[in-house]
Write a structure and sequence with these properties.
Blueprint (H helix, E strand, L loop, with lengths): L11 H22 L11 E3 L7 E3 L15 E3 L1
Antiparallel strand pairs: 1-2, 2-3
Length: 76
């Protein structure tokens, strides 16, 4: 048998952040579905820290209908 790579243990915080990413990506796709993405003042972001200083946001130039959880930016 070959070497077995160590499996990373996912912390509760990481699992929570991943679920927030999935939910926000779904919200972007839902906004596109209902045509809420073409207005001038469209914006979706999600605070992931209690103080609101760390948040998830979509990458620039990515259409709302194509945003994936893994593409969301974690900004501080």
């Amino acid at each position: 048998m070959g070497n077995v790579a160590s499996l990373k243990t996912v912390t509760s915080h990481e699992a929570d952040e991943w679920q927030l990413r999935v939910d926000l990506a779904a919200a972007f796709r839902l906004a596109a579905h209902y045509n809420w993405h073409e207005a001038v003042a469209n914006h979706l972001s999600l605070a992931v820290s209690p103080d609101g200083k760390t948040f998830l946001m979509n990458p620039r130039w990515r259409h709302f209908s194509r945003i994936k959880a893994s593409e969301l930016l974690l900004l501080d």
